[in-house]
Structure formats: structure tokens, C-alpha cells
């Protein structure tokens, strides 16, 4: 009888320990839904009405408006308490004027912020968006670039805010996450090229993936009657695993339509080669380019913040956050299985 009692005591002790350990493991992972909800249409709108205002003069590379833009981004990260990987309070990766091949009227800057990984800090997920636009037209009209790429810029800051909220509650990502705002995209992808070819803050061999956000605040003509969509480009070009993860995240949390029209190798628009993800892809780093398609206001002064569909911008930003969360926290690094 004594042996039976001892057996059951031991059994319940072990079950209790196992249960406790299971709960501890779950707690350490955190619930991404809780933190995704910190990304709000209200905050996105408030930020974009500043970032795509006339005060920023179209954010042309090297111009005073672009300098205001990088200060805006820096101040947001400092207010959130998200540090730079460069040095304390130094968020700017300086790019000399001569690097731009006479396409800019001065030097410029990428803006970098990051959250260090808790378990695998040397492995890095990059989330990128370009901070520049095309400036002022010859007739004096300001090209505010609310969608291109003000939408990606404010989305990236909101995604960073969500990861910081998780880290503050003890649910920091396993891998490091770099929030990379690049300059010079409109004149030839210069900022991302500088980062990947000249001064990668984190070694490219340790870079797991790049999720690039370029225009996610509008609806194109094709989808006017079916708003819950997003174009994805490049997700299957280098890693089958990345594509499958992306699809699974969408199915689990959002169930929006992923349109792969522009992912076709024969796409005449060649969008795969026309945004900053490409400088990562050509270095064998898996990428996803998130895009809402073009519209009548593309590269025109009429690309203004009042035309952004903020509910969609919120949903799309949350989708990218969930995808980055999965890439940062999964046990194994995704594999490159294509050339």
C-alpha cells in the first residue's frame, strides 16, 4: 500500500512539473495576436499625415525634406525606446554623395533600429521600407508619396512598436530584427545596395530573410470590388519554406487574397527587380515584397494621405508583423533551396 501511495505522489509531482514547464514554454513564446493589436489605423494615420505632409517636400534623396524625414524616423524610434545597432543614439548609416552616381544633390542616410534576439542574436530578420520619394515637380507641386512609400515607412515603425511591446513583457524575439529604412530607392535602389554591398551592419550570411514593404496603403483598379488582397512578389524565388510559412500565416490569421501576378518570371513590369528586396535577393537572401499595385496617383502630387485606406494599412501591417514573428521565433532558420 505504501508503495502505491508513493507511486501516485511521484506521478502527480511529475505531471505537475511537466504541466508547469509546458506553461512556461508557452509563456516564453508569447501570443503574437496580443501584440499585433498595438498596430492601429489611428496611429498609422496620425504618423502618415505628418510624414507625407508638404513640410517634408517630397523627401527627395539628399534634399532638406529627406533630412526631415530621417529625423522623424529617428525620433520615433527613440520615443519607443528601440535602439540603433550602430551606436548609442546614432541611427544613421551615412552614405556619401558620390555613391549615388550624380543622382542625388548630396549625401544621405539609411535609418537603422533593432531589437536584439534573445536566443539566436546573430541571426537577423530584416524588415525594410524606403524613406525617400521624388521630391518637388518642376512646376512646384510637392509629391508627398503617401503610398510610395510613406505607407511602408509608418507600417515599419508600427511593426517595430509591436515587437517592442512584446519584448517589454518578456517576449523578445529569438532572432534579432533589423528595422531598415533605406534611402535612394527612387533613383536606383541605392540605400539598400549600400547596406548589402558596402556596409552590412549584420553579416549577410547571418541574414535570414528580408520582408520589404513598398506601397501597401491603397487599392488598385483590379481589386476595387475585392479590397482584402495584397500582391506578394519573390516569396518562392529562393526558399520554398518562406513561401509556405507566408501562406500559413495568412490562412491562420487573415485569409486575405494573395495575388502573385507580379511574381511571374515573365512579368513585363519586372517589379521583382524594382524595389529594395532585390539587393538582398541577389545575395541569396530569401525575400517577400509586399505591394498593393499601382494606381492613378503613382509618382504624382496626388499621392496624398487622405487617399490611404487605413483599415487595410492596419491589416497588412499586422500580416507582416505575424510573418516576421514566425520567422524570428521558429526553432530552425528557413532554408534556401533555390537559386
UniProtKB/TrEMBL annotation:
<dbReference type="Pfam" id="PF04389">
    <property type="entry name" value="Peptidase_M28"/>
</dbReference>
<feature type="domain" description="Peptidase M28">
    <location>
        <begin position="110"/>
        <end position="322"/>
    </location>
</feature>
<protein>
    <submittedName>
        <fullName>M28 family metallopeptidase</fullName>
    </submittedName>
</protein>
<dbReference type="InterPro" id="IPR007484">
    <property type="entry name" value="Peptidase_M28"/>
</dbReference>
<dbReference type="InterPro" id="IPR018247">
    <property type="entry name" value="EF_Hand_1_Ca_BS"/>
</dbReference>
<dbReference type="InterPro" id="IPR045175">
    <property type="entry name" value="M28_fam"/>
</dbReference>
